[in-house]
Specification:
This protein has 167 residues and is of the alpha+beta class. The strands form two sheets. The chain has a five-stranded mixed β-sheet with strand order 1-6-7-2-3. Strands 4-5 form a two-stranded antiparallel sheet. It starts with a helix and ends with a strand.
Amino acid sequence: MENIASFLKTTISILITLAIISSGLFLWGKTQPVVELANSQAAAQARELSEQQYSAFDNQIVSGSQILTAYRRYESQQGFCLYVEKPYANGQNEAERRFSMNPSGEGYCRAFDYSGAKFKEGSESGVDEEEISNASGQYYISPQAKYRARLIKDNNERIAAIFFVAE
């Protein structure tokens, strides 16, 4: 009799344990879509917050002085470049009208297709803050000039550059 009672206790304990584990797994399976939704929303909010610093330049008309401000603002970001297409001036060649700037000063900028406003293969050297600030220089950006700013994203949908086109 004692063996039967002990067997029943053990069997019932195992069945209760299995019932608790299966109900836990059932609840875990039901919560996974909610967890995935929360994770995707958190990732979208994080991306929005990181891109918010660029919102002042998102398809906005800016002045030449704001380009200099952007140069100074983004000098701590590795691999971030600014691309400028100045208005055509008599006797000015394309290299002086279209140029890139790497605010961090480290490395080169990615090659850029100014007519298509997208990256292309290769790299190009950039100009520095002194060259765009020097009024007698060939890359001088007039503080009063108006430019349309466009954000340029890379293949990972990360904002990697700002393109300023003369208005």
